[in-house]
Amino acid sequence: MNRPDLLVFNAKGIYCPIAQVYIDPWKPVNRAIITHGHSDHARFGHKHYLTHHSNIPIIRHRLGQINVEGVEWGEKFQINGVTFSLHPAGHILGSSQVRVEYNGEIWVFTGDYKTEPDGICTPYESVACHTLITECTFGIPAFKWKPQEKVFDEINLWWDKNKKDGKTSVLFAYTLGKAQRILKHVDSSIGPIYTHGAVENMTDVLRPQLALPSTTQITRETINKDLRGALVIAPPSAHGSPWMRKLVPYETGTCSGWMAFRGARARRATDRGFVLSDHCDWQGLLSSIRESGAERVICTHGYTDIFSRYLREIGYQASVENTQYAGEKEETETKESA
């Protein structure tokens, strides 16, 4: 006899009926477990939030003085007899997978995740389960990431060349996660690093948890000549805005997994594209599923149809569920207010 699903998808989000709790709901609910601080997963309006301790400053910065409780990695807590725990997702600082167990059955929701350690967040942890709910933002074979060391070598060479040419190097990256990853790994000896206000504000929130080089926020008082040869980190929403006028002459670059497609760089009209993602590539997705031991896989947000079809071909019970998560697209192509 088949047991009812531990987690179901409804109009408000991913729901555990037995525990009466949601995971990353996109509509207001009484109780929500939040995997990480990106705005498609952590939304305003819930009565009670539960998340990893390191994510609390992030969601409070974005959502205000919410009612939030923090737990540690692997710390088990029960709600109506269902056992939950959070495990590192390796996506951004404080990002979690959610393990759900009831009567010996185990489900895991990955949230957004990546398997390559980035030196910023707690590395991804494989969690054994019977059913895995996985994102597949980059779930086609065309996506294969270089080691991040090689990507940052490319960024440093680009910045150094621009400095020698008397230009400002402007890198577009989302304010939470990617911007701090860039700060952590660029060669700050090349020159000064400036930031857009949105990046500076979020970085200030994260500095107590991270060792990052010093940065200077660009303001009305910033002098153009001081920016020559500098690196500027800004959100994608700054591209083409009046804010950019102060930076002339400059070259632009975008850091995103979508830069693996040549057309993606053209659509953003930037001079350079650097393939740097906070999500798994094709092989990362497959290896994480294999290591989980899951027999059933539910695919959400991304190349769901292609990825689930491939999983069925290699023997998994795979299906697709629709969500309101947007993956990397949400963080790179929409306006950012944080």
TrEMBL record:
SUPFAM superfamilies per the UniProt record, alphabetical: Metallo-hydrolase/oxidoreductase (SSF56281)
Protein name from the UniProt record: Putative mRNA 3-end processing factor
Protein origin, superkingdom: Bacteria
Annotated PANTHER family: BLL1145 PROTEIN, CLEAVAGE AND POLYADENYLATION SPECIFICITY FACTOR FAMILY MEMBER
GO molecular function term, any single one: RNA endonuclease activity
